[in-house]
Amino acid sequence: MRNISQFTISHTKNIRDVMKKISLNKKRFVFVLNNKNKLLGVLTDGDVRRYLLKKGRIKDLAIKAINKDFKYIKAEEEAESILKLLDQKYEFIPILDSKGKLKDIIDRENFQISDKKILIRSRSPARISFAGGGTDITKYFFDRGGAGVSFTINKYSNVHLIKRNDEKILITSNDYRKKILIKNIDKIKYDGNLDIVKSCIKLLKPNFGFDLYLETDVKPGSGLGGSAAVSSAVIGAINYLQKRRLNKYEIAELAFRAERIELGILGGWQDQYSTVFGGCNLMEFKKSTNLIQNMTLPNNILDELERRLILCYTGSPHKGASLQLKNKNNKKLIINGNKLKDLVDRVKTELLKGRVKNLGALINESWKIKKSLDNKMYNKKIEKLENDLMSPKLATGCRLLGTGGGGYMMFYVEPKNWFNFINKLKKLKLDYLYVKFDLEGLKVWETDL
């Protein structure tokens, strides 16, 4: 909104005052207001000239010469109303409130589609991994190459962002019941309170303040790539307001940097790429570059796969970095790396061929390899869950998601066993999730506040 005082004059002023005002604002018009700021009329340089030619006097009150037949727009009207007047060659348009008071003046130079306060929303999905976990660790694929296949599901990390008029940043998390105020980005400290959010903000260095609200659909430590979903949702929302917007690769890699480099949290690369790109992705990791290929599968294959997969909570969160991440020279990973990558190729083939019936065995095979990499991957709770739910009449394939020790297990259930399996879950009073795929990945949009 511009300073409108240079274009307005009181009804108590005379024609001479009007001429001075017009000379100063260089727009050839003024609006005449009463003492309550209500618009009475408009005077252009042409109106003044015509008034004087009709023997009006320069000392006369401006109100005697005003044009009361002027076009205006009410403040609540849409932008298209302004466009319609501009299209009819009107050079300036007063914006009035419901009481006829002047709120703003629009011309061709200062017209913007909207200066409304907007809400930026972003959401980024959780993921389930089918095969390849471990080979996405930099120290492994840097010399040997890595690969992975994953799907994203409709469980999200959600961010709601409102731009402020100052440089302060207020972060509110409903899940953690925390609220943090950042007054200076350069003085951000990591103290265990929403550090993943703070690291994204620190790296992006936004030149504006905002209120950011965070909520998630999955529990912390779920093994579903939740932290990567949080970081990409935060980056996505802030990125939406940046002059130069990051592409999908850049967002995923900044999310990786925020978690792995900035905070020093051990892990691979697949989570960040999965949540940003969405859908079913074949990922290749190499020293020179990482490539993400979205596998577009027919709806009937996706629908059927959803009906054969179910996630069951182990009863405790995963334990964080596994042994394979902590050990720089993990011989088991080196020995089994080729098996994992070969398994990725086989899963890819079965998916593209639409042979979902073979995926249960491959998921089970990936779990066996995963267990062999780290003895802390497995515990009595997980063993009991597997013994309770794996049988020819229940699930015929399973694997633990995430870095191990807890979180969710994914079970593959053949159609003939589906209802038996669900009844078993209910009988054991287990916490479970149906799988519904997300095909969009990171999504960001705006809405009126």
Topology:
Blueprint: E1 8-10, H1 15-25, E2 29-33, E3 39-44, H2 45-53, E4 73-74, H3 79-87, E5 92-96, E6 102-107, E7 118-131, H4 138-144, E8 146-163, E9 169-173, E10 178-182, H5 195-204, E11 210-216, H6 226-239, H7 248-262, H8 270-277, E12 280-285, E13 290-294, H9 299-306, E14 309-313, H10 323-326, H11 331-353, H12 359-373, H13 380-389, E15 395-400, E16 408-413, H14 418-427, E17 432-434, E18 437-438, E19 443-448
Helix pairs in contact: 5-6, 5-7, 6-7, 6-8, 7-8, 11-12
Q: What summary fits the major beta sheet?
A: 9 strands, mixed
Could you tell me the strand content as a percent range? 25-35%
Tally the helices: 14
The number of E-state strands comes to 19
Average the pLDDT over all residues and give the rounded result.
Answer: 91
- Helix fraction by DSSP (H/I, runs of at least 4): 25-40%
Outline: elongated
- Structural class, by secondary structure, is alpha+beta
Oligomer: single chain
Low-confidence stretches: 323-328
Termini, distance in Å? 18 Å
The Cα radius of gyration reads 31 Å
Question: Mind explaining what this structure looks like?
Answer:
About 1% of the residues have low confidence. β1, α1 and β2 form a beta-alpha-beta unit. 34% of the residues lie in helices and 26% in strands. The chain has 449 residues and is α+β, with helices and mostly antiparallel strands. It contains 14 helices and 19 strands.
